């Protein structure tokens, strides 16, 4: 065991990131990033849906883009690497294709599913914030019609001194912005502020991380798992942070048969961002999260229900 890395670096984590960051811009337009709120350590990042050359917003294209990353999200990295190696050996795509079908089957068919929001959070965490997912929750599900109990995702960053920044993920996509912010931060709070004990909300995920954490490379994975080994000094060098996503209906999107200029959607988002920030600040204070590092994505949508329906359709799932 002496050959294990002593600590993980930012370069190590960056080497495990998935996907092309530029592909995000095809479907999501950045409105603002790193927006701060006085008295809090949150950073808000706002994206709206992109307007195409015909003046249309295309939520179905966003859903299809998400679907194409389903293996990156739902299958552990080491299993993807093994499948790619097998396909290379036999000049085939059989093993990778099997993972695609396996990944798609892990999603629920419930009409009110939040899994689309969780997957969008994954794409933004990895491709926008450069925080790799280190626990693949979809691979842990035993029933496709049940949601996994725990955080909506677990992501990692690292400080120059080698402290692991563990980002607990939470996403909510609702019709009303206030409801999404309230429930998202209420769900996230226990993972960040509960004292360490066996009944803490985060405890199950921490136990899973000690066994299931995955950075593809066995040496990197071994170094990562030392942070979750309570007999290791590295377990004292973990900082809890949050990464969150709230999606909600926004009135400045046009009706489906009306053309719009991209600037109209961006300007509408910018004007509303101050109000959204006020709501976020109030909830952070109510949940005692003001001192916790949280990266929070605001995603105004034409329709929260429409987003869920588009995601289920792209996945080939009939909502139940």
UniProtKB/TrEMBL annotation:
Residue ranges annotated for the Anti-bacteriophage protein A/HamA C-terminal domain, each copy included: 37-314
Domain of life: Bacteria
Protein's recorded name: Anti-bacteriophage protein A/HamA C-terminal domain-containing protein
Lineage of the species this protein comes from: Bacteria, Pseudomonadati, Pseudomonadota, Alphaproteobacteria, Rhodospirillales
């Amino acid at each position: 065991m002496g050959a294990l890395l002593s600590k993980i670096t930012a370069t190590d984590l960056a080497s495990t990131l998935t996907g092309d960051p530029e592909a995000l811009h095809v479907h999501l337009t950045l409105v603002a990033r790193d927006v701060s709120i006085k008295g809090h350590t949150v950073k808000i990042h706002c994206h709206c849906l992109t307007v195409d050359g015909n003046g249309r917003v295309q939520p179905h294209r966003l859903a299809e883009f998400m679907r194409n990353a389903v293996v990156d999200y739902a299958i552990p990295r080491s299993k993807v690497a093994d499948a790619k190696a097998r396909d290379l050996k036999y000049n085939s795509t059989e093993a990778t294709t099997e993972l695609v079908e396996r990944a798609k089957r892990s999603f629920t068919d419930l009409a009110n599913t939040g899994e689309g929001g969780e997957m969008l959070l994954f794409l933004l965490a990895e491709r926008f914030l450069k925080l790799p997912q280190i626990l693949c929750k979809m691979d842990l599900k035993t029933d496709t019609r049940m949601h996994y109990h725990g955080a909506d995702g677990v992501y990692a960053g690292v400080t120059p001194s080698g402290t692991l920044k563990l980002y607990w993920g939470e996403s909510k996509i609702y019709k009303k912005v206030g409801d999404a912010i309230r429930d998202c931060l209420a769900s996230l709070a226990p993972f960040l502020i509960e004292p360490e004990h066996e009944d803490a909300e985060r405890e199950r995920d921490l136990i899973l991380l000690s066994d299931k954490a995955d950075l593809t490379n066995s040496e990197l994975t071994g170094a990562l798992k030392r942070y979750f080994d309570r007999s290791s000094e590295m377990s004292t060098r973990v900082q809890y942070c949050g990464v969150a996503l709230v999606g909600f209906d926004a009135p400045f999107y046009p009706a489906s048969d009306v053309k719009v200029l991209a600037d109209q959607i961006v300007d509408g988002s910018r004007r509303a961002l101050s109000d959204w920030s006020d709501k976020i600040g109030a909830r952070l204070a109510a949940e005692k999260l003001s001192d916790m590092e949280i990266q929070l994505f605001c995603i105004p949508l034409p329709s929260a229900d429409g987003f869920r329906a588009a995601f289920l359709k792209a996945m080939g799932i009939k909502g139940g």
